[in-house]
Amino acid sequence: MTWLRALRRSAREGLRIERAGLEPLVALRAAAGVAIVIGLSLWLAGPLVAASSAFGAFASGMATFQRSWRPRPVLALVAGGGLAVSTFLGYLAGAHWWVFVALLAVWAFLAGMAWALGPTAGIVSSLTVAVMLVVITLPTSALSAFGHALVIAAGGVVQAALIVLFPVRRWGRQRDALADAFAAEADYARRLRHDPFAPFDPEPLMTARSAAVITDRQARRRPAALRGKRVLAERIRPVLTSLADPTVGAAAEGPERDRARELLAAAASVLDAVARAVREAEPVRVPPEAESVVLVEPAPEEQLTGPARRTALRLVALLSEAVSSATGPGGSVSTDTAHLRRPSVPELLPLAVRTVRREARFDSPVFRHAVRLAAVTPAGYALGAALPLGHGYWAPLTSVLVMRPDFSQTYGRSVARFVGTLAGVTVATAVMQSFAPGPYPCAVLAVVSVALMYGLMRTGYLVSQVAASAYVVFLLGMAGSSWTQTVPDRVLLTLLGGVLAMAAYALFPAWETPRLRNRLADRVKATGRYAAAAMEAHAAPARGGREAVRAALLDARAAALAWDQAVARADAEPVRGRGLSRRAADGADAALSAMGRVPMLMEAHLPAPDAAPVPDAAPFARHLRTATADAATAVRERRPPDFAPVRATLEAWPRSDADRIVRRSAELLMETLDDLEASLRPRPRTRPARRR
């Protein structure tokens, strides 16, 4: 992709406005926290302290809207504490220009490295740098600086207290994540009726798993409806796939296929009902027509035989368990009390240090982002101070808020911030010029602006920046700054900050395109381990390989998601040398998707510990694991993979009716390996014929 096309695409992404579900009560609660802090500070200490405190409450409220499964009060308190520390250090160094610039560079680098801990930590850390740039201009002494830092921390306390005192949809995000997983499986069941090989996006299941990772304190308060149902959703998915697959499930045509379609349609209705019940915290209401098909005992499966019949009975049992599990008052309580444990904040510190240290290498996108941030922030501050515009901190402020570790978001947000700033400042300026409001009306207008920003945040960065820009203009107007001192300068400096951010990425990029081969190699290895684990579970059932299969499945999902995200980022980058052709990438993706489907079919038929083993599956699994690991190395080294040992093992596997499903699964795996090998084989270059 050329630079011009990449810039146009990034600009469109940044300016896009999405239709999203709004959370007005949550937005009003966060805006009320800002209003309380501004009102009390304005009444007790005056406009300057009110402006300082407003930034703390605003940023703490922003932290609670981030996509994190941590409790919202904890996010508000951590954000408020970080803001207080950063601003107080900035106050102490602000009297000495060079000391402050050095501190700014170090703090910006640390904020950039915080992206190693996830987007929430990165965004909150960026806010600490932004607030440091703005509020150090307000106090005049160390004691005053300490007071401003306390007021900023109080903003986080107020936001946390409001969340505790006025909860809105307790466990709502966890409920939505689990409900989305069931809804995705319902959609998958419907698509399987028409396409037995329909793909399934595992991201909803991965999100539900992330939402289920909770602290010990949360585990004691977790609703019964959220206990055990995620595991049910995980177990239902391979059963749906196995029932629809003509190889190990219902026949491709005839009465068996008609019965399978009927069961899949009913399963979709039941799964939708479970999703609705989880989301709304109400009992499951299954449609009567679906209940008569899948929730009766004994299940009428006379049209199905063999493995298809066993799969159908398994599906009926799992759906019945999902319906009868706890859904609120009066429901049966699940016996599943185990939970995926999330470390507390103190326990997280050593883990965070190790995670950040792993990213401290030159080729890491997070490290490069931190270096760019550490260079651009002080450079923008110095340029803003040198230009005769006033309010020079707006340039580095813009850079800090728009810079991200990847190209598309940085460029898209730069364009969206400039357009949003221009629109928001224009509207706010018109109000200030027309009515010349005093401190208290400005405070009211600022609260209204921040409420709009919180409420419309999910619709896109452009819309939120319109409201945020108006909020800052009204806030500075409350503190006594006239519009002539803020509006024109801020627009020009915002443009400068965006240009600096984009130039920094162009000069010191972290392109995803050259790393595509590494991402593909990781996926090849992880998918091979998943398939080998499923084979080993059938080879030796007494060893109990379910946990190994589950762990390998999670690794394969993570590798597939990382590959998909890498391809999406690479498609938006202005890099010509991909290191991996589009044909090879598409072919490998299709082969690995088909390969991942096979162990999922086997997972639906995992044998009991006392079942008869399939000894011939053991050497196949061993060679498969080794060959895919070698293939991953070959992909990284730009060599074609070789799966001859796996092929030879399959040819030596004697045919037997006792292990028909396992043998057929091995054949399907070999077919996908052949497709993978063909997609990564170099194509011969053909020279055009010379004209005579």
TrEMBL record:
<feature type="transmembrane region" description="Helical">
    <location>
        <begin position="149"/>
        <end position="168"/>
    </location>
</feature>
<keyword id="KW-1133">Transmembrane helix</keyword>
<keyword id="KW-0472">Membrane</keyword>
<feature type="transmembrane region" description="Helical">
    <location>
        <begin position="97"/>
        <end position="117"/>
    </location>
</feature>
<feature type="transmembrane region" description="Helical">
    <location>
        <begin position="461"/>
        <end position="479"/>
    </location>
</feature>
<protein>
    <submittedName>
        <fullName>Uncharacterized membrane protein YccC</fullName>
    </submittedName>
</protein>
<feature type="transmembrane region" description="Helical">
    <location>
        <begin position="491"/>
        <end position="511"/>
    </location>
</feature>
<feature type="domain" description="Integral membrane protein YccS N-terminal">
    <location>
        <begin position="84"/>
        <end position="202"/>
    </location>
</feature>
<dbReference type="InterPro" id="IPR032692">
    <property type="entry name" value="YccS_N"/>
</dbReference>
<feature type="compositionally biased region" description="Basic residues">
    <location>
        <begin position="682"/>
        <end position="692"/>
    </location>
</feature>
<feature type="transmembrane region" description="Helical">
    <location>
        <begin position="74"/>
        <end position="91"/>
    </location>
</feature>
<feature type="transmembrane region" description="Helical">
    <location>
        <begin position="438"/>
        <end position="456"/>
    </location>
</feature>
<dbReference type="GO" id="GO:0016020">
    <property type="term" value="C:membrane"/>
</dbReference>
<dbReference type="InterPro" id="IPR049453">
    <property type="entry name" value="Memb_transporter_dom"/>
</dbReference>
<feature type="region of interest" description="Disordered">
    <location>
        <begin position="673"/>
        <end position="692"/>
    </location>
</feature>
<keyword id="KW-0812">Transmembrane</keyword>
<dbReference type="Pfam" id="PF12805">
    <property type="entry name" value="FUSC-like"/>
</dbReference>
<feature type="domain" description="Integral membrane bound transporter">
    <location>
        <begin position="381"/>
        <end position="503"/>
    </location>
</feature>
<dbReference type="Pfam" id="PF13515">
    <property type="entry name" value="FUSC_2"/>
</dbReference>
